[in-house]
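Q: I'm writing a short explainer about Phosphoinositide phospholipase C for a general audience and would like to include a description of its predicted shape. Could you first generate the structure from this sequence?
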Amino acid sequence: MSSITKNNRNSIQTDANLQSMQVGSIMRKVKSRAWKKQRYFRLQDDCATIWYKSKKAGNAHSTFSISDVEAVREGHQSEVLLSIADEFPPDRCFTLVFRGRRGNLDLVAESAEEAQSWVKGMRKLIENLENMNERERLDQWISDWFKKADKNGDGRMNFKEVQDLLKMMNVDMNEHHALRLFTMADKSQSGTLEDDEFVLFYKMLTQREEVLRIFQDYSSDGQTLSCRDLEEFLREGQLKQDHVQQHSMELIEQYEPSDTAKMRQAMTIDGFQMYLLSPEGSIFNPAMLEQHQDMSQPLSHYFISSSHNTYLMGDQIRGHSSVECVGCWCVSLGVSFPFITYSHDYAHTSQYPVILSIENHCSVEQQGTMAQHLTRILGDKLLRNALEGKGSDLPSPEDLKGKILLKGKKIGGLERSLDGVVEDSLAAEVSDEDDAAEIEEENLHNDSIRHKKIMGHCACSCPTICGMSVQISLTLACCVCVSIQKSKQGLSKELSDCVVYCKSVHFNSFKHSRIHSKFYEISSFAESKAKKHMKDAGAEFVHHNVRQLTRIYPNGIRTDSSNFNPQEMWSAGCQIVALNFQTAGMEMDLNDGLFTQNGCCGYVLKPAFMRSLEKRFDPEHPEIRDGYRPVTLTIKVISGQQLPKVNLKEGSIVDPLVRVEIHGVPKDQARQETRHIDNNGFNPMWHETLTFTIHVPELALVRFVVEDYDKTTKNDFIGQYTLPFSSLQQGYRHIHLLSKDGTSIPPSSLFVHIRIKEGT
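A: Of course. Here's the predicted structure. Afterward I'll give you a sentence or two in plain language.
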């Protein structure tokens, strides 16, 4: 803790921006054009936390960690700040973008100079945190706990404060044992702990017996791991075979904190634990996090991260709309009136194409206006013409880098272009992707809402702004609650010409598609229809998706913005599986887990057997295919570390259990769980083994869930982590848990051992 404190003090002493942030600033927190409240913001002494409160005396304060902030945007680079652009100049405005699905924080400083201090200071703090090694991160975490426990702020902790700290840390320790640790750490015999004494107390408190046991099993002298010891651990413990000698030397160099041990080419228990807690010791193979897949295959060969009504922050009827929900590569928009505003870049880090799915409810004249706006605002980014040399196949993500593709109805095909407006026969076709039409067809919505919609009026009070963003952001005024009348609709040539490779067509049958469909045509299915096709003709569905794109969207009844299980659709090779990104839960965990691999670029290459027209794969019968090789996955759940409290009631300690879920083809769907541990969220021990047979490992996702057991009510969620089976690292691994909205909750983790064996 002392080292991190000194580093922070040095940073403050040498940086005027951080000094200014520590003094604090009164800034406006902006949620809308009408909601602008003054708040006092200040950087705390740890240089890792921002503290803020209302100007009014007596109001409770709030804090957030610098580690929760992903980026800082200057100027009017959010929908909210754009709405007040006429009140405040851009040089006074900035946005803090949080990780996961947490909403952003829009701020207006009193002056341009003050805004710059915060922008530059925040960016420096983010950079410092990103450059921290594992030891420094742990020191920072200890420092945070010290400040929480030091109630009177005197830089010391008496025993009462230590007892309160243990409760905050989810530790149920008897008073005698706690006092014994306190006395051992109190080297100065002052009756309080300060600085390094608290670090010693923490080390005794967090001594990992299970890690020490593994360390000693491989240590020749019981004190350190020699290079040879470490090689043996890598082979037997981590199940690695290649380059273990070189790897063992690299691990010592990178993670061993003792220079003396380094000189002897040995690793101490501290270095061993740091390695196991590092990204290299994580369950997610770091090599799979990098972009490593072939990006030169046709679009139909990839799963594409996709959203449904991305702009909504809540449910489908009353949900507030915002462009801040965007984090996907296929965005659906229902457009009933072509009003457009300009917006800036929204942190879309990948250069691979974005597909803008238009559900068109505009008149022919309005469509022309919309096409003009699309062309003017998106410019060269909007794909207007077919690529040369791509006459019979969809282009690849690599071919389409930096492009935006429009998905919608089109006059004719790529082979020819018709003049004018198409009426009657072509215009009469109502897209199979209209959510409102799906509600009517299934007769699932209540009569009052249906009646209001049939009358052609908006039955909700939702704002009429929705958005899409990538480098340039397009914001289209729309009404989510569109009319469900299936009236004939013309299509303007101007809008038609904006659609190239994603022509929306009605799906008739797989046989019809094999004979008549073009590679650039795309059909959309509500989840219930997709499930029926999978059940009736799973292999044909997979075959269809080899050459053509398919979009799946939630049933119309999901007005609460709930989600369906995307894994079922991926198992049929469906590329564009649209979810309500604003709704946290298992479904979004699976989506995040799948698309975390391959550099988070939004595209994941489908398995080889789902990319060939010559091969047959039926998700209902996975054993009937070439190359069928099931595997056995054995997971030993060993322990948990510093699990967060879910019940803030004083004295409450969690009773954690771990559930492991396999999500894949129907035959692979499985879940098993450990027993619960009474009153221990700090260092629960399970030492339980769970075994799964996986028939299609190429499609499987593994989800780890930690819950607080309750025998009378539903268990409370503590944390989760989801990843593709193909990204698992074998051996002793830590699983760094995520919150419900997908953000990290350091240092909460699970410690497991993973073994994969071919065959059952």
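A: For your explainer, you could say: The chain is about 30% helix and 25% strand.
Q: Perfect, that's easy to follow.
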